[in-house]
Queue: 4 jobs
Job 1
Amino acid sequence: MASYTLEGHTGTWEVVVGLEVHAQIISKSKLFSGASAAYGGAPNTHVSFIDAGFPGMLPVINKECVAQAVRTGLGLRARINLFSRFDRKNYFYADLPQGYQISQFAHPIVGTGEVEIELQDGTIKYIGITRLHLEQDAGKSMHDQHPSKSVIDLNRAGVGLMEIVSEPDIRSPEEAGAYLRKLRQILRYLGTCDGNMEEGSMRADVNVSVRKPGEAFRTRCEIKNVNSIRFVMHAVEAEAMRQIEVWESGGEVVQETRLYDPSKGETRSMRSKEDAHDYRYFPEPDLLPLILEQDWVDDLKAMLPELPDEKRARFCQEYGISYYDAGVLVAEQATADFYETLAKGRDGKLAANWVTGDFFAAMNRTGKSIENPPVSVEALGQLLDLITDTTINGRIAKTVFEEMVETGKMPTAIVDENGMRQVTDTGAIDEAVTKVLANNPDKVAEYKSGKDKLFGFFVGQVMKAMQGKGNPALVNEAVRKQLG
Ligand code: ADP
Ligand code: MG
């Protein structure tokens, strides 16, 4: 693998990255209250007394959120801690009415795990997971709604979050991007987080440091709340370059919290780094420790859906398609399901070629999605059957497909209406070949004097004379025979 390095005037630098991802849990209600956890809604309509921090209110753990965290831990091949505990993380902010966040500090629900990532050149790498813990989300302060006031929407306050912390195993912007894409894919397959970074349901804190190859880690900076994979990749690069400049000019990188400004492509200091002791963590007195039964965890494990890595391996094996194509097809669960419905009982490679080729192209062109596809899986299946049973040839199939996209008609109807059936009648094919050769005596002479490349010209002319409907293998054979 070509490793990623940056060059400064003192030589080569390596980049070290660890990510803390906040993933909003998919659940009906919040982590410790019965208020709706749905995204959006009129401001401050999904708020219980608990979320609003009223004195004397008692949090009650939402079992489904716990199950979601366990499922996620299992999907990350991680250790599930049967004993975990909640802690209070104290800080003051207007969007945190309790004055503290209930989180897990010393005893997270999930311990070490790993995520397999694949780089552009096909290299496989494992990124270690340090831990996953449960915590409450905060509300949203908005500073652009009123000329002189800030307003607060507490709908998000108290929604369950999983904070997923990686080891500092990431070594390039590409690896950071691959890790986030893979993590999002796993969360979506599991149904534990929708991974929608634009709506803020998945956010990343990006820890970056640089070092000379072979050195111990140097001081890192943490870039807060980056909300797209592309920005994470840019932020890693921009921050690494800044740190190299600091070190090379004789300065020292100080540990701090920074913000990434996408419009400028640079990071800027936000505040000096806070340490755990700044938050005065202590065990949450209103909640008992969380104790899970191994049987319950085992049941959750038994019910897990097939995850992308397993599905990819199975697709290669069951349908005989390439590892690359299988990767494209499992990228989203809905695409994988579409493919599998199509491929069942058909030629798996033919199905993969059509889905990743003409079908994806049509989806992009029409702006449709896999949930609302440009052609139904039944219609595409019928088209493949027409190719396989030689009713139509591959080239005509493309024309039929375009008409399916445009009109929504089934392929058999299109083929019948337009008389597109493939001609396999060798008499008719021979006749067409004879005509083409008779009309091009000079080209025939050239061919016979050694210009082999003209073979394709004759085949093309015959196909054209037959409106593209000739069986390609039979046309080739007839041309060869008549040219002698
Ligand atoms: P904190 O809780 O103070 O943010 P952690 O030790 O939990 O600190 O680390 C947070 C993140 O920082 C982790 O994702 C970890 O991989 C990453 N990290 C730790 N040290 C470094 C380093 N020297 N360079 C880059 N990332 C680092
Ligand atoms: Mg942190």
Job 2
Amino acid sequence: MPQPTLDAIDTTRDWLQQARRIAVLSGAGISAESGVPTFRDAQTGLWARFNPAELATEEAFRADPERVWNWYAFRRELTRAAQPNAAHVAIAQFQQRHPGRLTVITQNVDGLHQRAGSQGVLALHGNLMEDRWLDAPRDCCHAQHITDKLPPRCITCGNARRPAVVWFGEYLSEATLAQAQQAASNCDVMLVLGTSGAVHPAAGLALSAQTSGAEVVIVNPNPSELDNAARLCLCGQAGQIVPALLDF
Ligand code: BV8
């Protein structure tokens, strides 16, 4: 695998050291070294065996609730076994050394940034490890009063529990997206870590950073749909490159 040139890393470090505000936009690739499959890896990728249009949508859940629930249960098992890697840890430790200087915007639902100790994480697509009601909860809907079938349902009205993630075709939290948009537009440097840039509106945040005059730096072993928005593309793995960028 080609490695980024040392001067590309040094240039990025210089930009980061001069930056008052830094934004991180992370995708599934930052968790790959933690053993959480990305969506695009042909071999192990979640896309490879499941088509998101088939599973990560409300329609898919309503059509076959047990099948979709079991897919998330499978992913929850993988995520529980995963540990934050050197990239997650370097970001969290940087935030502790430089309070308020780095904002984490993540597309990931695995909670690994939070488990590494990052604060104020803007989790655009929700949290895989939490559930919520499928339909607006009625007075009878209590998370403790559910059936033991899968997916669990309200014992009174049958309302189903569903993963607290944003499915395709669902709106992101307006507040979270607005905070992410603000962080992207106000940053001096954006590190785009491990994302194919295929999913919107998350991918658009890198374009917002670029049009607002930030230096956009991608860390990814492969080309992505955001490469044209970047000043530098550091070709390599986040777990190896990110600690070297943030060790000041
Ligand atoms: C919405 C939670 C309004 C669920 C997810 C504009 C243009 C085109 C399409 C759209 C658009 N606006 C809206 C859409 C539709 C859609 C969309 O983007 N479709 C795409 C597929 C074309 N977006 C939506 O529906 C969004 N909602 O816009 O609401 C609306 C409403 C109705 C109608 C229209 C609009 C909601 C999107 C959220 C979907 N939920 N996750 C779940 O997880 O089950 S998205 C999910 O997929 C992930 O969270 C993540 O965001 C995405 C996968 O992307 P990546 O993270 O980039 O992962 P990927 O595997 O693709 O890439 C990994 C990368 O890492 C690779 O590049 C690889 O090379 C690299 N890598 C690998 N190893 C490493 C590494 N990098 C560094 N180090 C390594 N070691």
Job 3
Amino acid sequence: MGKNIAIFASGNGTNAENIIRCFQSRSDSPVVVLVVANRPQAKVLERAENLNVPAVYIPKEKWETGGAVLDLLTRYKVDFIVLAGFLAKVPDMVLHAYPSRIVNIHPSLLPKFGGKGMYGDRVHRAVVEAGERETGITIQYINERYDEGIIIAQYRCPVHPDDTPDDVAARVHALEYEHYPKVIKRLVMSLWALLP
Ligand code: GAR
């Protein structure tokens, strides 16, 4: 087990960029060696390239079997996988090759506002419509089912009565940028420290 991370993402990639920047600024951090996207137009690909991180698009049909994804991870000697706005299923083959080594971030306090189809702005809209007074983020290991993996950490923020979904999104994103890199670093470094 080394300290090489791959980030899987589907869209904008602001979390991916934040994680890459945090880790590039410190020599004692894990290293993001690869970014993988499941959409060719995902902005995350451009963000990664601008930061000199190899960025690869893998088309939908190849995610169904998983062999091509696993080959890529092996080629880049990836030890740990971080999902950051990744909206597809991780193939079972990859899941089994990385036991307890794949983490996800979800923009609500799971089990609230989770499950298939609940992602990004849809979550913030649902939080506002439900009249919640609090929301936050959940960092979890993944398993075969959406948003049901073991929870590693949760962080909270208020929802004010006049908040729009965009207001909530901004507050939640700020929590993500603050905490996700720290939690990833803690997990990767503790796995690494267990090595003989
Ligand atoms: C993040 O808020 C992340 O928590 C969420 O997508 C957003 C991606 O933003 N993930 C999910 O909803 C997963 N169910 P980003 O592309 O700017 O990092």
Job 4
Amino acid sequence: MNTVTVQASKTYEVKIGSGLLDTIGQELSRIAKGKVMVITDETVAPLYLGRVYRSLTQAGFTVYTSSVPSGEGSKDLKYYVNLLELVAEKQLTRSDTLIALGGGVVGDLTGFVAASYLRGIRFVQIPTTLLAMVDSSVGGKTAVNLRAGKNLAGAFHQPSLVLCDPSLLDTLEEDVFRAGCAEVLKTAILFDRELFAHLREKTLNFDREWVITRCIQWKRDIVCADEFDRGQRQLLNLGHTVGHAIEALTEYDTPHGYAVAVGCCIIARAFSQDQEEIVDCFRAFGLPTDSYFSAKVLAGAALSDKKRQGDTITIVVPTAIGDCKLRSIPISELETVIKVGLTHE
Ligand code: GLY
């Protein structure tokens, strides 16, 4: 088992190891007692909720559970309000705990409920997808979507503990696993040639515990340096300007990781000396590397995203693997950048 300690506005441990799911009761009892509400989704509940419930009750917790439908549609004000009402009805207090058992949607939704109920109560993340393990469960970004766009209502609220159990990935559908691989590749391109080399050699058979730990260490470093996303943390948006545009243009039918894969490849073709290696690696993981949308359409959708600041937009430029920088460009240049990165224009 590996432990990564995050020292942000709150200090907490991220534990990574197979079998950790069944230790949630013991782990939580080191930092909390009282009531717990486990929030999960309808895919994860039949697989893992029973084990979590058992471990928590054996450790003496009073446990409530709630399940939302699977998918991005649950990252919505309706589910957020329902959960707040439920938590209030069960009379949870500031000494009680919410647990997010699921992927990014459940983590972001539960985190925002925890951030706002009683102006903030403790929450724990048990990510069940690769994407949630390496990215969304660590760092305290919580949110729901609004009609105007993704993640537009939210808060920074750090978890008190994150338990990553790679054996949970065994039940993940292959396309969901691949989608998580896009964020893993993104981390390698941003910071880590050695990680990239391992992924290139092993592709989908990479060493899960080692890779997840390495990605979390990088995420920890970024979050500790820039918890509130004013500078360096924006590096984690590599591939996301175009990625978010593709998600919006396809009405969120394209999984986030697939859209990020395309975004990383377009920006790599536009800027990176290692563009061939990067695109080949995404391809080797079975991820898409190009978009059928035109540069004009992609730029238009990207510019309605919240990362635009007045007349400029900050993009992440992957000069080489392990060497990426933030660059602010005039919004009028974005279409040209995307055009260079597409293969069909
Ligand atoms: N998922 C990007 C971040 O945590 O900043």
